[in-house]
């Protein structure tokens, strides 16, 4: 990465780190049962609610108990179950139309990360009718209080029930748009382990590893706080103890409950401390090929930890020792290596592969550029990487059967493309100054909007 661009990224990240104590983060209030959620809607005088979910959830009848509790309390509901994996802009627009047509007053996101993301951005489009999803990409681009949003996770891993983040895929370009705004944090989260008892083993595995990636990237990044570090440690400790149990016996109530809590903790950690390039690359793979986000994260994690090397060694070692992955007296290098080996062992024990099929050489330059645009300057990663460096990581996880081109030639092509597209150093400096000023303005606006949101939802 160009030294001036690197400086720009670090200044941008520092501005947000300094602002962390005054930014309006909130934690969703946890609820234990669907009945509590229904009672809440009655108290809020919500006559009808939109349930955003997917077809599998409705076919399996997982929301039946929620529907019954709503009916018993006189709360009408509309079900929107058209959400697809890696939800699209068309999903969001269809859900928004249903909400408005039926006169709903609140949203319940029922499902995994896809349902959560769709519900969040649906809420954003409801309060921002003139702003398309493509214009919400980035941070603090919504800045309006959403309708009351209740999250009901049915997987233990995405952490979406706690976060200010959502990712929506463009139907036409297949690019993923990460949207980050304090108003996207759900107001309440129903953490009922019974919703996860029917999860297939492979989904238990990939969503559980997704939570591990959240906690790990939050801990080794450069914008941590004492709270986020403690949450990340708690999440990794629980994952170490309970993920394999939940994978091997899906009816293990204790393991399911503890994994839900692990996902909740990891979500809180990365909401404040952000994620890293593992997510940026995984998002591009999901957008281009429909690869499940948790699977891509699980495969990529050990490779990126290796790639970061000494830049993340100290913090990764701390995480390994404090979570029990490594011995308490292990030296940094040994503890960090133990953690990386452990992630690979977890993947292997749960049948997660070491590579991903279908990655085409000709797609890699565009995906790398997209990951670069997502990750820089926002993600406070241990070591900064540009599109040229990120491009190599796609080849690392590429199935050998798909690597039929000259990888070195592809590297040169990407490097030339990035060099040609990069602005001159003075232009980068100007962008750096504008970005820092914009970050300050957005933080101040976010604080004002958050106060409005809190008053609105009391």
Secondary structure: elements and pairs:
Elements: H1 3-19, E1 29-31, H2 34-43, E2 48-52, H3 55-60, H4 64-72, E3 76-80, H5 89-102, E4 106-111, H6 113-127, E5 138-139, E6 148-153, E7 165-169, E8 176-180, E9 188-190, H7 201-220, H8 226-248, H9 253-273, H10 277-289, H11 293-308, H12 310-323, H13 332-349, H14 364-375, H15 387-396, H16 407-421, H17 425-456
Parallel strand pairs: 1-9, 2-3, 2-4, 4-6, 5-8, 6-9
Antiparallel strand pairs: 7-8
Structure summarized in a few sentences:
By secondary structure, the chain is an alpha/beta fold. The protein contains 17 helices and nine strands.
Describe the structure.
The chain contains 17 helices and nine strands. With 458 residues, it is of the alpha/beta class. The chain has two domains: 28-196 and 451-456, Rossmann fold (3-Layer(aba) Sandwich); 205-421, Dehydroquinate synthase-like - alpha domain (Dehydroquinate synthase-like, alpha domain, Up-down Bundle). The strands form two sheets. It has a six-stranded parallel beta sheet with strand order 1-9-6-4-2-3, with helices on both faces. The protein has a three-stranded mixed beta sheet with strand order 5-8-7. A hairpin with a 6-residue loop joins strand 7 and strand 8. Residues 406-429 have low confidence and may be disordered.
CATH fold assignment of the largest domain: Dehydroquinate synthase-like, alpha domain
How far apart, in Å, are the first and last alpha carbons? 47 Å
Fourth-tier CATH superfamily name of the largest domain: Dehydroquinate synthase-like - alpha domain
Number of strands: 9
Any idea what the CATH architecture of the largest domain is? Up-down Bundle
Largest sheet: 6 strands, parallel
Overall spatial form: globular
Taking pLDDT < 50 over at least 5 consecutive residues as the criterion, the unreliable ranges are 406-429
Tally the helices: 17
Order of helices and strands: HEHEHHEHEHEEEEEHHHHHHHHHHH
Secondary-structure class: alpha/beta
Strand order of the largest sheet: 1-9-6-4-2-3
Number of domains: 2
Rg, rounded, reads 21 Å
């Amino acid at each position: 990465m160009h030294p001036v661009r690197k400086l720009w990224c670090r200044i941008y990240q520092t501005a947000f780190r300094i602002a962390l104590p005054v930014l309006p983060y909130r934690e969703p209030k946890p609820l234990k049962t669907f009945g509590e959620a229904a009672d809440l809607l009655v108290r809020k005088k919500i006559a009808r609610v939109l349930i955003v979910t997917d077809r599998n959830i409705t076919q399996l009848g997982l929301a039946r108990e929620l529907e019954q509790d709503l009916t018993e309390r006189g709360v009408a509901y509309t079900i929107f179950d058209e959400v697809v994996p890696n939800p699209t802009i068309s999903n969001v627009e269809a859900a928004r139309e249903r909400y408005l047509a039926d006169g709903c007053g609140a949203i319940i996101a029922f499902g995994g990360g896809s349902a959560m993301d769709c519900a969040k951005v649906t809420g954003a489009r409801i309060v921002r009718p003139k702003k398309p999803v493509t214009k919400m990409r980035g941070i603090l681009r919504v800045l309006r209080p959403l309708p009351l949003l209740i999250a009901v996770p049915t997987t233990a891993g995405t952490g979406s029930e706690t976060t200010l983040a959502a990712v929506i895929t463009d139907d036409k370009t297949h690019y993923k748009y990460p949207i980050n705004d304090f108003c996207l944090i759900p107001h309440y989260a129903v953490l009922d382990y019974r919703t996860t008892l029917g999860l297939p083993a492979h989904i238990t595995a990939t969503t559980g590893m997704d939570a591990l990636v959240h906690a790990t990237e939050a801990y080794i990044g450069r914008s941590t706080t004492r709270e986020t570090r403690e949450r990340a440690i708690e999440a990794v400790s629980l994952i170490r103890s309970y993920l394999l149990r939940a994978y091997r016996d899906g009816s293990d109530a204790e393991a399911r409950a503890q994994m839900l809590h692990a996902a909740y903790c990891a979500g809180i950690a990365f909401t404040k401390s952000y994620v890293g390039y593992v997510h940026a690359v995984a998002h591009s793979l999901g957008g281009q090929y429909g690869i499940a986000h948790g699977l891509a994260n699980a495969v990529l994690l050990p490779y990126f930890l290796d790639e970061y090397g000494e830049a993340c060694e100290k913090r990764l070692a701390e995480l390994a020792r404090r979570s029990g992955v490594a011995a308490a007296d292990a030296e940094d290098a040994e503890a960090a290596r133990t953690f990386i080996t452990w992630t690979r062992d977890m993947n292997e024990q749960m049948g997660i592969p070491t590579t991903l099929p279908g990655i085409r050489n000709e797609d890699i330059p565009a995906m790398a550029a997209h990951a670069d645009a997502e990750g820089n300057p926002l993600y406070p990663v241990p070591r900064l990487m540009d599109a040229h460096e990120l491009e190599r990581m796609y080849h690392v996880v590429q199935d050998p059967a798909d690597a039929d081109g000259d990888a070195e030639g592809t590297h040169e092509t990407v490097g030339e493309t990035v060099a040609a597209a990069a602005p001159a150093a003075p232009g980068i400096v100007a962008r750096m100054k504008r970005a820092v000023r914009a970050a300050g303005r957005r933080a101040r606006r976010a604080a004002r909007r958050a106060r409005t949101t809190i008053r609105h939802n009391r």
